Automatic annotation (TrEMBL):
Belongs to the ATG14 family. Keywords: Coiled coil. Residues 271-281 have a biased composition (Low complexity). It comes from Endocarpon pusillum (strain Z07020 / HMAS-L-300199). GO terms for cellular component: endosome; lytic vacuole; protein-containing complex. Residues 269-296, 483-513 are annotated as: Disordered. GO terms for molecular function: SNARE binding. This is Autophagy-related protein 14. The lineage of its organism: Eukaryota, Fungi, Dikarya, Ascomycota, Pezizomycotina.
Length: 544
């Protein structure tokens, strides 16, 4: 039987959980006990009636027995029904009580639900109010923050512009103090630019065959010092590290990009490194056993003051090859500086990069050009510039780039933002400059068949002719074969005359090919020129 309170059925495995379960279990034994007691009482009354009837002769006891028996039976049925009725009432009462309890709980739950709904509705209304207030406050805060950011950005831009002006001023003053000048020179009827630094010509690297070694060394020394000073003012780290002269280091050198900025003390070329380490095991553990990098020289050591580059190249080809790498690295650093500041002109080909004087002049001193003439871009650069979209605060500076805009020391215009200017550069390695330069210079020296005659050489042994003198032209080979004198084999007589030539003569020299302005009266003679003039002539090799 299932309990109305704990809703469980009693079994032999489960104990009683409540008094109701115990009463429910005891109902049947009690009923059986009551039934047995009633039967016992009935039997006792019958036995009593039979016992009393046995003593008398009257027949009424039988009737009484039947009547009493019927009454007893009727009383038993009434009692059992009353008991069943009482049980039914008890169960009904328990069920009603349970129903009332459930109804009370349902009512309490409904009240709780209604209360929570009202609370949620109140919270929703409060949330909507807070949300609208927060959105307005957030909008106001965002506008205020944008205004603050705009003010800070404007202040930042102002400071950056002042820093750019300061860097530009320092670089230009350094160039002026180093004597970087541009001069116009007439060569071959064409006006060409010639650049000097410290009063010494800053030659194009393709023309160093005609330079004296001491002048070239001085020019490179001044150029290296100026480039290092500019990189210091611009706070830029050059791809190839330059070492300026200092104590026990008399001349400048330059490292390759892979050996640059290692933080190791490298001795001067040709000297022995001074080791401060001890022979103790503790000291040897801290000694760097890696081989020292070899810097490339930015100087030439001549035997005398009149030695030129070809003589040194013939004397020591290995040192000359390292020297070519050094000057190529210096020109590459200058081109990288120009490229990092947004100046593309003079950096597209190795021939343009070799003209270090022009690149330094355009970077430091030349007035800024109009945006239409700011630079000469290749087709690939134009396509890349169309795809590049700088950030908002860098868009305006990109339109008006100036010297000192990009710097490793500035978070405003860090060079990573200007990496687009180096992305389309073809000359990403210095070997792309040194290899063609070496081929050009060595090929020029090996193919040289012309030598320069000085004034004394023109005067010595040079016969002077007047305009009315005759020149004998003979066949030397025929005279020697026939055994005749040189005067007997004259074939013709040519009278010397002057003529006006309106075009320049192209003369090959051992320094290269130059245009020589010969727009003047020249006496055409077989033996030589008029005294007082000097020029180029083809002579036999003096070493033979």
């Amino acid at each position: 039987m299932e309990c109305d309170i704990c809703m469980r059925s009693y079994s032999s495995r489960l104990p009683f959980c409540c008094p109701s379960c115990a009463r429910s279990v005891l109902y049947e034994p009690r009923l059986r006990n009551a039934k047995l007691l009633l039967e016992k009482e009935h039997l006792a009354s019958r036995i009593e009636s039979i016992h009393s009837s046995a003593k008398g002769t009257d027949k009424t006891p039988n009737t009484l027995e039947v009547r009493q028996d019927g009454q007893a039976i009727t009383r038993w049925s009434v009692e059992s029904r009353n008991i069943q009725k009482a049980q039914a009432k008890d169960r009904t009462k328990v069920i009603h009580e349970h129903i009332q309890t459930l109804r009370a709980e349902i009512k309490a739950f409904r009240e709780e639900i209604a209360k929570r709904k009202a609370m949620l509705q109140k919270k929703r209304s409060e949330w909507s109010t807070i949300k609208s207030a927060v959105s307005e406050r957030q909008k106001a805060s965002s506008e205020k923050a944008q205004e603050e950011i705009k003010k800070i950005t404007q202040s930042w831009d102002t400071i950056q512009n002042k820093a750019i002006e300061t860097r530009s001023f320092l670089c230009r003053e350094a160039a002026h103090l180093h004597g970087l000048r541009q001069r116009k020179k007439m060569r071959g009827g064409v006006v060409r630019d010639q650049y000097t630094i410290g009063g010494i010509p800053l030659l194009d690297l393709k023309d160093i065959n005609s330079a004296k070694a001491n002048e070239l060394t001085t020019s490179l020394n001044n150029t290296a010092h100026l480039v290092v000073l500019i990189s210091f003012y611009l706070s830029l780290r050059l791809p190839a590290e330059i070492t300026l002269p200092h104590r026990n280091y008399p001349l400048p050198t330059i490292f390759t990009p892979t050996n640059s900025y290692q933080g190791r003390e490298v001795p001067f070329l040709g000297t022995t490194p001074t080791s401060s380490s001890t022979n103790s095991p503790a000291g040897s553990r801290h000694t760097d056993l890696r081989p020292l990098p070899r810097p490339r020289p930015l100087f030439i050591e001549p035997e005398n003051l009149k030695d030129k580059t070809p003589h040194i190249a013939k004397r020591d080809s290995t040192a000359f090859a390292f020297f070519l790498e050094g000057i190529s690295l210096l020109a590459w650093d200058i081109a990288w500086l120009c490229r990092s500041q947004g100046m593309y002109a003079g950096t597209e080909s190795w021939e343009d990069v070799c003209n270090m004087g022009r690149n330094l002049w355009n970077l430091l001193i030349a007035p800024p050009q109009s945006p239409a003439l700011l630079r000469v871009l290749s087709g690939r650069d134009v396509r890349q510039q169309r795809t590049i979209t700088p950030s908002a605060h860098l868009a305006a500076p990109y339109r008006s780039l100036r010297l000192g805009h990009f710097s490793h020391d500035s978070a405003h215009s860090f060079p990573v933002n200007g990496a687009d200017f180096l992305r389309g550069w073809k000359l990403t390695k210095y070997t792309m400059i040194v290899d063609p330069l070496k081929r050009a210079l060595i090929g020029e020296m090996s193919n040289a068949e012309w030598e320069m005659l000085e004034q004394d050489e023109w005067d010595d042994g040079g016969e002077q002719f007047r305009a009315d003198e005759a020149v004998f032209i003979r066949n030397r080979n025929s005279a020697e074969m026939e055994g005749r004198s040189s005067f007997d084999d004259a074939r013709s007589i040519m009278t010397a005359r002057t003529e006006r030539r309106s075009e320049d003569r192209r003369v090959e020299t051992d320094r290269g090919k130059e245009l020589v302005d010969a727009d003047a009266d020249a006496t055409v003679a077989v033996s030589g020129r008029v005294k007082g003039t000097s020029g180029w002539t083809k002579v036999k090799n003096r070493e033979k």
